[in-house]
Amino acid sequence: MRDAVTASIDQELNNNKSNHSKHKKILFLGSGGSGKSTVFKQLRNIHGSGCSAVDRELCIPYIHAQVVNEMKFALNVYMLYNQRKQQLEKKSMNGDDEADEDDDLTFYDRIVLSSPPIAADNEAVNILLQYEHKKNKTELDATVVSAIESLWSEAVMKEIYELRHLTRIETSSAHFWNKLDEITDASYLPSDEDMLLNRHVTTSVQEMQLQIQNDIFQIIDVGGQRSQRRKWIHCFEHVVAVIFVADMSCYDEVMVEDIEANAMQDQCLLFNDLCNNVSLAKTAMIVFLNKRDLFKEKYVDKKVSLTVCPQFSDFCDDGDDDFNYEKAAPYVQNAFLQLNETPDREVFMHVTCATDKDNIQKVFTDVQLVIISNALDRSGYLNFE
User: Fold this and answer.
1) What does the pLDDT read at residue 139?
2) Which is more confidently placed, 3 or 385?
């Protein structure tokens, strides 16, 4: 009788072990704006249920909020820039040449706008400044839409957008500003592209479960802003893999939360903390160097050197930067790999473009093998001793 009970308990433990091995918990981490939520949504399109009509309707208020708030943000940059310009003119007239490092407006000395200013009698400025967009509102007032169209037609606002590495305007905002007629139509439903490009801050833990063949992946996306990172530690338990999503194109950008901090440096510091965290010592560490397309555009086409980032100051020590992607991309990869302080730990690196469905599908197929192997190892299936 005792042997039968023991056998029954062993069978139950084996069943629980088998069920646990099928459920693989993956944590998506990264700085705000890295594109991890876009990867999250792309995986739902590829392996999940995709976006239903209800999902698309629910996204409309977020798209409208981005359209309004990002233009207000750009307008605020314009106004602060001019406030600083007037401040400097007044100091010059008064013969005041003392430094004013403590003044927050000194940041705008980095910005140079050469386009004509917005006309003083442009009503669009006051309309937008006075407008408060209500959460979950599914329609935009016609006067507000007209004001945004008017401001977006101004050359100086397009110049502020082009300087978004300093002005911190979301790259995808132009996509929506260029199709205001469509997104404000009563019959509008966001396309897959609109759903992916819409940007709103993740302030809660988002979860989704994907079944791929016989494996079940529980994917958790946590907000990446500095104020959200304290929540991460509560998600570490039973995690078999961390996918750290880093924006490889942000090397010349300032942070939204801290205009004095370089965004790439913040990512490197964050990855260093995660990669060497003892709580994640047995967790597969995977890095998605994301926004490959924007990196190529910035580095290869616009020829913005990697050395503008303090973290990459030793790139091209000989001073001969030929803006070759095949040389720069491996350098960025290696900069992250070198942060791993555990000799016997392997960090798996992938260069990605979250808006490219084929790329994410291929990369995640490769990632599955790493995750499954790590899960088997942790559950004891690969322990042959």
Assistant:
1) 85
2) 3
